[in-house]
Write a structure and sequence with these properties.
DNA Primase, Chain A, five-stranded mixed β-sheet, 10% strand, 29 helices, DNA primase DNAg catalytic core, N-terminal domain, four-stranded antiparallel β-sheet, alpha+beta
């Protein structure tokens, strides 16, 4: 319908936005200045405690500084009442005392027909409710009583019964003077293939009226009483009134209950919704025989920011949840998501309510999983990741799912959350042994770890400066990654496997693994939040760290790559030497002197090789610092070293 020029301007002039919004919010008296039309309140479109929703009554616009919702009075009514543009105009015009312009004849005719169809549907509702009270409805009444639905509950949800006859409803409507084409257009009857009279769509079924948000009956759902019926549940066919992909059962009452603070629950069927509503969960809805559609998701998000998908605790329920995830990922917006409450195995919400009561359902709702966690579960459940290929397949699958998210901010947060879950899955076990403790031996039995003999403790091979050297290399590697996190992905595998001698380094390593891909600023912020500002200050002002080229030239990717690769190689060699000495010390009591001497001699030679490389270390630092060009042969050697470091687990 087209409106005449100037009608909307006049409507906006007569409408007070403050009055329209004031029906839905509580103004913040400290921030608001009603005399100037400058009003503030907690936003009605997202949950918050602070007053970030601003109304400029003189200009007629609102804006939320939290969720960025904005618009005028018409837009506010559309969003809060879940109506279309013309319906919002009609509501405001009625309040302002403005008559709506006459519609054109065709539009009026179409509206009149929809009104007629809705009237026929209401006649059918009355007929089915009456039939439930007859002798033919006795079996249906017994079934409903067994499901915990008394007369009051049946009246509340207008539940009825369609007897097992071919033209029961047809004859009733014809007796009321309803034309054939209206009955057929409502989907209440079907034409006979044998040339006879049309026959009723619903027969021998418990009937559930399906109403739109405005309360008009637009369709029916029928539950078969015959256990051998091919379709346990049957919905009306799509009509001029009914589009099942854009309809939710119990939509209107659920929207009202959600507006009063109740959580919006999405169940699988009519009986689940009815059971939930009777138990006090009034904001419950259900799709109509299909998986949740894109349009239904948008309808849900108009009601609540985080609807809870409550699905049956079986394989089919999980599959339905996974389908919802695929539909929802491209539609996610800031503040708009889903949570999932999975029922106990073999139970739906109705079963759980009858078995354990409303408190059990509330506990599941409180523990509902965020969508990212269920996405992770789907991609990892039942899989074993014991090879690089399988891990790579998981990474690829997760990347493909993340790509579906259109919002770049949400895409980044999903990537970070999945990265943390991956880290927890693949994180190596880092046991800390103390002298006199125990460990697994090669025979699979626990054995005590002997303490070192006094002569071994005094040996130069276990001098304190060796541990200090390892800590220095760890510090240089971590500082380089903090200053240039762009190179993190190249070294992720060896960094993940790096066992830090210093507990502070271990905590810093874990934070880098989780947040390096978010960028230098975010990484530093996360480190300071977790460890305090002193942690980075202490690390970066260490003399050997402060002089390292990546610290002096943060962001220089090439310098960071060369430094980290070199330090990891030296760290690997030193750890191999330390492990050899440790094993020799453990076996002192049972080894012959010659064997022990040979092993320690081999370890000493390895140590000397590591010491000789100190000069090479400084040369590499100098090359990086001065930006000198290296030869092609040297470049190939360095690339080979980098590949080795990247894919080889360091020696423990």
């Amino acid at each position: 319908m087209s409106l005449p020029p100037g009608f909307l301007d006049e409507l906006r002039t007569r409408t007070s936005l403050a009055q329209v919004v004031g029906r839905k919010v509580m103004w913040d008296s400290r921030k608001s200045n009603q005399g100037k039309g400058d009003l503030w309140a907690p936003c009605p479109f997202h949950q918050e405690k602070t007053a970030s929703f601003h109304v400029d009554d003189r200009k007629g616009f609102y804006y939320c500084f939290g969720c960025h919702a904005k618009g005028d009075a018409i837009g506010f009514v559309r969003e809060t009442e879940n109506v279309d543009f013309m319906e919002a105009v009609r509501i405001l015009a009625q309040e302002a005392g403005m008559p709506m312009p006459e519609r054109d004849p065709q539009a009026q005719q179409k509206a009149d027909r929809r009104t007629q169809l809705a009237e026929v549907m209401d006649m059918a509702v009355g007929h089915f409710r009456l039939q439930l009270q007859t002798g033919a409805g006795a079996v249906a009444r017994d079934y409903l009583t067994g499901r915990g639905l008394d007369e009051t509950a049946c009246a509340r949800f207008e539940i009825g019964f369609a007897p097992d006859g071919w033209q029961g409803l047809w004859d009733h409507l014809k007796a009321k003077g309803v034309e054939d084409d209206l009955i057929m257009a409502c989907g209440l009857a079907k034409p006979s293939l044998k040339g006879g009279r049309p026959y009723d769509t619903f027969r021998n079924r418990i009937m559930f009226p399906i109403r739109d948000p405005r309360g008009r009956c637009i369709a029916f759902g029928g539950r078969a009483m015959d256990p051998n019926d091919n379709a346990k549940y049957l919905n009306s066919p799509e009509t001029e009134l009914f589009d099942k992909s854009r309809t939710l059962y119990h939509h209107g009452p659920a929207r009202e209950a959600a507006g009063k603070g109740q959580p919006l629950i999405v169940a699988e069927g009519y009986m689940d919704v009815i059971a939930l509503a009777l138990a006090g969960f009034g904001a419950s809805v259900a799709p109509l025989g299909t998986a949740v559609t894109e349009h239904q998701l948008q309808m849900l998000w108009r009601i609540a920011d985080e609807p809870i998908i409550a699905l049956d605790g079986d394989t089919a329920g999980l599959r339905a949840a996974y389908r919802v995830i695929d539909i929802a990922l491209p539609l996610l917006e800031a503040g708009k998501s889903l949570r999932f409450a999975i029922m106990p195995e073999g139970q739906d919400p109705d079963d759980l309510l009858r078995a354990k009561g409303a408190s059990a359902v509330q506990a599941l709702l409180d523990d509902a999983l965020p969508m990212v966690q269920l996405l992770w579960q789907r991609e990892t459940e039942g899989h074993v990741y014991d090879s690089p290929e399988r891990k790579a397949a998981l990474d690829k699958a997760l990347r493909e799912k993340i790509k579906l998210i259109r919002d770049p901010s949400i895409r980044g947060h999903y990537g970070q959350a999945l990265k943390e879950m991956r880290w927890q899955l693949f994180s190596p076990r880092r046991d800390t042994f103390k002298p006199g403790a125990a460990k697994w031996n090669k025979g699979g039995k626990w054995q005590p770890i002997p303490t070192a003999m006094p002569s071994t403790k005094s040996s130069l091979l276990v001098a304190a400066d060796d541990a200090a050297q390892i800590r220095l290399r760890e510090a240089a590697i971590l500082a380089s990654l903090v200053c240039t996190p762009e190179v993190f992905e190249e070294f992720e595998a060896p960094i993940e496997m790096m066992t830090c001698a210093d507990p502070e380094h271990a905590r810093l390593r874990d934070l880098i693994l989780r947040h390096a891909t978010a960028g230098a600023d975010t990484l530093r912020t996360r480190i300071e939040e977790a460890l305090g500002t002193h942690a980075l200050e202490n690390l970066l002002r260490l003399p050997h760290v402060a002089l390292a080229p990546p610290v002096r030239r943060p962001g220089d990717v090439e310098v960071a790559r060369m430094t980290i690769a070199a330090e990891l190689a030296k760290l690997s060699a030193e750890r191999g030497w330390s492990a050899e000495v440790s094993e020799a010390a453990e076996d002192l009591a049972g080894w012959a002197d010659e064997a022990l001497t040979w092993r320690l001699g081999q370890a000493a030679e390895e140590r000397q090789r590591a010491l000789r490389n100190q000069t090479e270390d400084q040369a590499e630092y100098d090359l990086a610092e001065n930006g000198a060009r290296i030869s092609r042969d040297e470049r190939e050697q360095f690339d080979a070293l980098l590949e080795t470091i990247r894919y080889t687990k360091p020696t423990r």
